[in-house]
């Protein structure tokens, strides 16, 4: 029975870690965003506002949870649960260091992809059941966005899996011992990052929140603890994607001198900060542009990437050829984008011919 | 320069206006630097059409449409401007206060749309042929027309 | 069975309580999926009957009401009223007053365009430009505050001149502000303008041809975006604008992007004008010899001025008393907003707020 | 004991979800009940040590297909259709259901219980790949062609004015 106890303890530890992380991430995002925008961010609760998230969480827990008139009761109540559960379940198999994991799975990567997909259903349930048109639009956008970006995300992961010949995150990290996969296949990394951002709905892909258009999307009507559950799901996912990026492409917990956990958390937080930085600088794409990006660029590119990796593996070529091929493909992919953009470079505004205007006669 | 002294260009414009709108018997005068043309209400729409389409006048821009409550009459005032020649003109038409109605000019300048709706709200002037003459600033069923001189300023708290 | 398979049009009510309708404005959108099929703007939530109030106040009491129409361009509004009365009464304000008025109005224009810049970024989904814009606004605000003592609704430009002379350090303050302004404008420009995402969102969005823009009565940056050099400061110069050296920026395509670029360029031009005014500003009185009571002769006058949002017209009918008989304001936002119905058709829902933002309206002026 | 308990819960959830799917008058509820069934079936797979199959079930059916269903339902006339959940294909549906029951009964009856464990241990990834892309390559490709046809059909039908 001791393995059951062990499993339970590990689960509780991971849950506690996640709750703490979410609170910290929210604080961190507000602080970093504030500094980028020349503000201080939260300052009033404890030194540097470190307890701000705790205060917010307490407030949310105590707040009345409202259900709009005409909302579909059960679906409305179940939505947040369906959204947050898979987000937490994913962490069963994400290691924080060698052996520091609830359960390393043989099918780890596949498990993560499969389970996280269900989370979306929760958001769509929320959006549909709220009896609010913004929520409905948000739900439709959520569904479209998630389905579209699941494909490039999975294909980008597939590249790593093919190289590592394993779906277990532990194995994949061990495989990257001399060179991280970032060097071996930068294209997969880029695809993963873009698709990951879209799955997280962070800028520039925060289409289904879109506060300034559909005022928060599927969660418009939620309040109190149910809203907090969505929020928690989002930040857990943010951390998960960052951790995955670190594990799959940056060599995970491998690194000199420092303990494993520190290395992994450092790499993970590098991604978190990068994502926050994007939020502070990039406007939002439109839904059709988002779809075009996925289906016209990312998906074909991802398939080509898979083919190249297959060739590389089949003919057992040296590692640098894959790096080169990957970079070359990324470059080729940028050409149409670049031409597309350069045609749209901002034209200088002309100024009126200052002499030639007939003036209207008026009192001089 | 005396502000009441029209310049050469304005004299030329006045002559051109008199010629183009001759059939409507316009009465024109200068108020400061503005050429003001008074027309009978039923002639306004046709005159506006001519003023816009004539190559010498080319009043393509309706700058402002106002109504003035003159007691027994309500005066509709069109401030026109030409982006081609950069000259300006004012058309005025006086409507009877008991039946204030005039043809809409939205088909000539789409920009007259809200001006006319606002004028109907605030002065009760009907613009015939307007595509959608519903209340713009006031709510449906608002009693009266607030900018008429007869509309009291205070004592209406209970009318909601 | 087949006819049940098609998608349904949905009615979305955007506003009057919506974060991006720039005040209490409402759009009733009919959408097919994400595409707008029809749009109906609904206004009037802020209608206070300013024109009626004016008829019952003396001319000097009206000035604060003008502040409250386009509250982002309060000095410009006051100037419009002052111009109308001065023209009607034949008053020539002192030259020093004219220069100070121009400085204040151009600074207000920068302030107003900065507000546009910030909220446009916000509409596009990024909050940083908003903060950058407000940092710059704050510096301008401090100069304006040092002049009139308040941040909004200054009631400072009076008929015949100004309420008071500017404080002694005014020239220094403005001189110190100008390089900061230039730098800040360039900073904002580099933060957002060449952003690929913004380009993708705004190029070609809500295009309107020059002919159509004229027909709808667009004015200001919205009209100049179509390539039409219509700037009252140039075509019908008032105050001292004929003595100043400035360019009128023009767009080429009449889309949201051009409207944005023009406002950025106008800020630079405004800074140029302020600099020239500062150089040429003479000493002297700031108020003309005025009668105790303002009683303009019977008559009527229409003046127009270039507000940040466009062609601001004041139609004043006097019957001789100390109150106007009729005072109609041609609010640029009111006319610009009229084109929205036409511009929105075929856009995506996400574009609606961008199109509205690109028109840059102030509801206080639309509803009056 | 624990195995039987787990099986009971999952089987119960499967049947309850299925009943909910066919009896619910609200299309979206039906889709959500379907999700319950699909996830429960994934659980059943898991109990048979077919974890890969279970995950595929969750990924494709739980995540993607139900999502697409919901997406389609949200954009169409869902509110007015409660009365018209039936359609003229009802007899066909009954025939199909009976055929399925017959097939399953046939399999159940012709199997020797308890079943011999085939091969022992979970099936490895390489074997999966090999059998899918070597032995069953043609049926696999055929299935994808069928899906493609369905996809194009959907586009044609849903296009505005597609009937002309």
Explain what this protein looks like in three dimensions.
The complex is a heterotetramer of chains A (364), B (160), C (368) and D (164). Chain A is 68% helix and 1% strand. With 364 residues, chain A is mostly helical. Chain A has two domains: 1-62; 68-341, no CATH class. The N and C termini of chain A lie far apart (98 Å). The model of chain A is unreliable at 342-348 and 353-364 (pLDDT under 50). Chain B has a single domain, classed as Beta Polymerase, domain 2 (2-Layer Sandwich), CATH 3.30.460.80. In chain B, the strands form two sheets. Chain B has a five-stranded mixed β-sheet, with helices on one face. The longest helix of chain B is centred in the first third of the chain and has 13 residues, at 8-20. Chain C has 368 residues and is α+β, with helices and mostly antiparallel strands. Chain C has a single domain, classed as Orthogonal Bundle (Cytochrome-c3 Hydrogenase, chain B), CATH 1.10.645.10. In chain C, the strands form three sheets. Chain C has a three-stranded antiparallel β-sheet with strand order 1-2-3. In chain C, helix 4 packs antiparallel against helix 11, helix 5 (128-148) packs antiparallel against helix 6 and helix 11 (256-280) runs parallel beside helix 14 (349-359). The longest helix of chain C is centred in the N-terminal third of the chain and has 30 residues, at 95-124. The radius of gyration of chain D is 19 Å and the shape is globular. With 164 residues, chain D is an all-alpha fold. The longest helix of chain D has 25 residues, at 51-75. Chain D has a domain at 1-77 and 152-164: Four Helix Bundle (Hemerythrin (Met), subunit A) (Up-down Bundle), CATH 1.20.120.1200. Classes of the chains: A mainly alpha (364), B alpha/beta (160), C alpha+beta (368), D mainly alpha (164). The interface between A and C is large, with 49 and 59 residues.
Short description:
The complex is a heterotetramer of chains A (about 375), B (about 160), C (about 375) and D (about 160). With about 160 residues, chain B is α/β, with parallel strands linked by helices. Chain B contains 3 helices and 7 strands, in the order αββαββββαβ.
Entry keywords:
heterotetramer; A: mainly alpha; C: 368 residues; alpha+beta; Cytochrome-c3 Hydrogenase, chain B; three-stranded antiparallel β-sheet; 15 helices; 9 strands
The appropriate CATH architecture of the domain at 1-77 and 152-164 in chain D is: Up-down Bundle
Return the structural class of chain A. Answer: mainly alpha
Radius of gyration of chain D: 19 Å
**Biggest interface between chains:** A-C, 49 and 59 residues
């Amino acid at each position: 029975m001791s393995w059951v106890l062990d499993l339970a303890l590990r689960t509780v530890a991971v849950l506690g870690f996640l709750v703490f992380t979410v609170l910290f991430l929210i604080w961190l995002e507000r602080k970093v965003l504030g500094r980028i925008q020349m503000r201080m961010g939260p300052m009033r609760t404890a030194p540097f506002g470190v307890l701000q998230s705790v205060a917010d969480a307490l407030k949310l827990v105590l707040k009345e949870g409202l259900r709009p008139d005409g909302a579909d009761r059960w679906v409305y109540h179940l939505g947040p649960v369906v959204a947050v559960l898979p987000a937490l379940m994913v962490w069963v198999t994400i290691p924080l260091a060698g052996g520091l994991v609830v359960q390393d799975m043989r099918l780890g990567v596949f498990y993560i992809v499969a389970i996280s997909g269900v989370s979306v259903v929760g958001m769509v349930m929320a959006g549909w059941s709220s009896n609010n048109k913004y929520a409905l639009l948000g739900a439709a956008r959520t569904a479209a966005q998630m389905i579209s970006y699941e494909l490039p995300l999975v294909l980008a992961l597939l590249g790593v899996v093919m190289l590592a010949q394993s779906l277990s995150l532990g194995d994949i990290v061990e495989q990257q011992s001399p060179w991280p996969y970032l060097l071996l296949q930068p294209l997969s990394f880029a695809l993963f990052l873009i698709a990951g951002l879209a799955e997280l709905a962070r800028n520039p892909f925060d289409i289904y929140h879109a506060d300034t258009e559909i005022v928060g999307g599927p969660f418009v009507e939620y309040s109190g603890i149910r809203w907090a559950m969505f929020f928690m799901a989002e930040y857990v996912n943010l951390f998960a994607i960052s951790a995955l990026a670190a594990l799959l492409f940056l060599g995970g917990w491998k690194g000199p001198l420092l303990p494993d956990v520190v290395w992994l958390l450092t790499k993970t937080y590098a991604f978190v900060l990068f994502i926050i930085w994007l939020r502070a600088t990039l406007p939002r794409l439109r839904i059709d542009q988002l779809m075009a990006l996925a289906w016209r660029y990312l998906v074909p590119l991802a398939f080509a990437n898979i083919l190249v990796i297959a060739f590389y593996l089949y003919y057992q070529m040296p590692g640098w050829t894959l790096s080169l091929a990957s970079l070359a493909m990324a470059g080729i992919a940028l050409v149409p984008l670049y031409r597309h953009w350069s045609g749209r470079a901002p034209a200088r505004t002309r100024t009126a011919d200052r002499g030639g205007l007939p003036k209207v006669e008026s009192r001089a | 320069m005396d502000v009441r002294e029209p310049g050469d260009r304005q004299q030329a414009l006045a002559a051109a206006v008199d010629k183009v709108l001759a059939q409507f018997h316009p009465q024109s005068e200068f108020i400061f630097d503005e050429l003001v043309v008074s027309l009978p209400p039923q002639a306004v729409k046709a005159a506006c059409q001519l003023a816009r389409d004539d190559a010498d006048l080319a009043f393509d821009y309706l700058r402002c449409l106002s109504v003035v409550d003159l007691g027994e009459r309500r005066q509709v005032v069109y401030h026109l401007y030409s982006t081609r020649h950069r000259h300006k003109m004012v058309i005025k038409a006086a409507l009877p206060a008991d039946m204030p109605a005039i043809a809409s000019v939205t088909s000539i300048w789409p920009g007259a749309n809200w001006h006319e709706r606002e004028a109907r709200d605030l002065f009760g002037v009907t613009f015939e042929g307007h595509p959608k003459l519903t209340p713009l600033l006031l709510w449906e069923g608002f009693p009266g027309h607030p900018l008429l001189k007869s509309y009291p300023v205070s004592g209406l708290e209970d009318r909601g | 069975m087949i006819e049940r398979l098609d998608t349904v049009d949905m009615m979305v009510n955007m506003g009057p309580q919506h974060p991006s309708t720039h005040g209490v404005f409402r759009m009733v959108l009919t959408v097919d999926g994400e595409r707008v099929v029809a749009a109906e703007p609904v206004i009037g939530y802020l209608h206070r009957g300013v024109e009626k109030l004016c008829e019952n106040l003396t001319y000097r009491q009206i000035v604060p009401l003008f502040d409250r129409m386009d509250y982002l361009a309060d000095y410009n509004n006051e100037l419009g009223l002052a111009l109308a009365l001065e023209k009607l009464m034949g008053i020539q304000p002192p030259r020093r007053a004219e220069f100070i008025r121009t400085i204040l109005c151009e600074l207000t224009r920068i302030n107003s365009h900065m507000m546009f810049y910030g909220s446009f970024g916000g509409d596009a989904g990024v909050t940083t430009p908003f903060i950058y814009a407000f940092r710059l606004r704050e510096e301008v605000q401090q100069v304006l505050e040092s002049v009139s003592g308040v941040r909004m609704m200054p009631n400072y430009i009076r008929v015949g001149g100004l309420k008071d002379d500017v404080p002694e350090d005014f020239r220094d303050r403005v001189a110190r502000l100008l390089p900061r302004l230039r730098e800040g404008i360039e900073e904002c420009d580099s933060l957002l303008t060449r952003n690929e995402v913004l380009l993708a969102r705004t190029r070609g969005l809500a295009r309107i041809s020059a002919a159509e823009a004229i027909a709808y009565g667009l004015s200001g940056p919205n009209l100049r975006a179509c390539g039409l050099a219509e700037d009252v400061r140039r075509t019908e110069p008032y105050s001292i604008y004929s003595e100043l050296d400035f360019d009128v920026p023009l767009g080429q395509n009449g889309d949201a992007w051009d409207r944005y670029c023009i406002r950025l360029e106008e800020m630079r031009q405004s800074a140029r004008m302020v600099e020239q005014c500062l150089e040429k500003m003479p000493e002297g009185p700031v108020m003309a010899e005025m009668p105790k009571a303002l009683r303009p002769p019977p008559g009527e006058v229409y003046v127009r001025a270039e507000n940040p949002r466009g062609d601001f017209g004041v139609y004043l009918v006097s019957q001789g008393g100390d109150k106007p008989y009729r005072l109609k304001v041609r609010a640029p936002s009111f006319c610009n907003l009229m084109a929205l119905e036409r511009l929105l058709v075929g856009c995506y829902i996400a574009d609606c707020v961008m199109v509205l933002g690109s028109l840059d309206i102030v509801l206080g002026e639309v509803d009056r | 004991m624990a195995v039987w308990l787990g099986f009971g819960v999952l089987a119960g959830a499967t049947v309850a979800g299925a009943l909910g799917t066919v009896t619910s008058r609200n299309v979206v509820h039906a889709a959500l009940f379907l999700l319950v069934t699909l996830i429960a079936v994934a659980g059943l797979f898991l109990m048979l040590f077919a974890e890969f199959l279970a995950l595929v079930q969750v990924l494709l059916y739980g995540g993607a297909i139900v999502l697409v269903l919901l997406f389609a339902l949200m954009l169409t006339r869902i509110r007015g259709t409660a009365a018209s959940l039936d359609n003229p294909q009802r007899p066909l549906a009954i025939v199909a259901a009976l055929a399925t029951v017959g097939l399953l009964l046939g399999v159940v009856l012709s199997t020797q219980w308890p079943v011999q464990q085939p091969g022992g241990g979970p099936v490895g990834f390489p074997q999966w790949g090999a059998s899918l892309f070597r032995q069953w390559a043609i049926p696999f490709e055929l299935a994808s062609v069928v899906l493609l046809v369905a996809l194009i059909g959907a586009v044609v039908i849903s296009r505005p004015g597609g009937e002309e």
